[in-house]
Design brief:
This protein is of the alpha/beta class and 243 residues long. It is 37% helix and 20% strand. It has helices spanning 4-11, 15-24, 43-55, 125-138, 157-164, 184-196, 204-220, 231-238, and strands at residues 61-77, 96-109, 115-120, 143-148, 169-173. It has a five-stranded mixed β-sheet with strand order 3-2-1-4-5, with helices on both faces. Helix 5 (157-164) links the parallel strand 4 and strand 5. 20% of the residues are buried.
Length: 243
């Protein structure tokens, strides 16, 4: 990994020159990001399908982004957090006590930004079926288009059989290695940042109560996420060059 000092020494110039060149060309050798190309043989069809639901949702139907956030930990810090002060960041103890985990199932309505949620101890196909039944009750008269990933429980035979008996619910799968295409992942990120990551929870019940309060407040100002990328723009970057 290059630093301005190491690069300057190798080039025989002042480090300020290296720094100014890097700044001018927005070169940041200290940063590394990860990526993964999808090998889904149905990549193009799935991208077009999901993006079509975002940009041109069907009339008189509901589009839901569905997934589960598993293993949310109820961690209790061994001492209270020290609050933010001038010149000092908020601080919390490195050590904690574990009080169990919970799984949050969520269905994000892409038109309103609001979510239907349910807690479960596990995330087997039985819990998936229970949440599908809740979705079915929440939207009893409209066609419902469900966007979710390729997790094995979503394709379980019992789940598929139930869906066949409820033709109002239409399932659309995101491509493999493309969970970012599911908008509920953005909601999970907001939930983690604002309600979970800095919390201290003395029990799973305390954790669930905190999440419920957050969701209630989130709904007061909920707005849909704005999707801007077309299928063509995504597909142009979705595969390595030459494939």
């Amino acid at each position: 990994q290059w630093s301005t000092r190491r690069a300057a020494k190798r080039l025989g110039v002042d480090r300020n020159i290296v720094q100014s060149v890097w700044r001018a060309h927005r070169v940041q050798p200290h940063r590394v990001e990860t990526f993964k190309f999808s090998k889904d043989p149905q990549l193009e069809a799935k991208v077009i399908d999901v993006v079509g639901l975002y940009l041109h949702p069907p009339t008189n139907a509901v589009v839901l982004c569905v997934d589960e956030k598993s293993q949310i930990q109820a961690l209790e810090r061994t001492a209270p957090m020290l609050p933010l002060r001038p010149g000092l960041s908020a601080r919390q103890t490195h050590d904690y006590r574990r009080h169990g985990t919970i799984t949050l199932f969520a269905a994000l309505n892409t038109a309103t930004g609001k979510v239907v949620t349910e807690f479960h101890q596990r995330h087997r196909h039985q819990e998936v079926l229970a949440f599908l039944r809740q979705i079915n009750r929440a939207y009893p008269r409209q066609d419902v288009h469900i966007i979710w990933d390729n997790y094995c429980t979503h394709k379980h035979a019992a789940v598929q059989t139930w869906l066949q008996k409820h033709p109002r619910l239409h399932v659309h799968y995101t491509p493999t290695s493309a969970s970012w295409m599911n908008q509920v992942e953005t909601f999970f990120s907001i939930l983690t940042t604002r309600a979970v990551r800095r919390g201290s929870f003395r029990s799973v019940d305390n954790l669930m109560a905190t999440i419920r309060r957050f969701i209630a407040g989130y709904h007061e100002g909920a707005e849909p996420f704005v999707w801007t990328k077309t299928a063509a723009q995504i597909l142009s970057k979705a595969r390595p060059a030459g494939l």
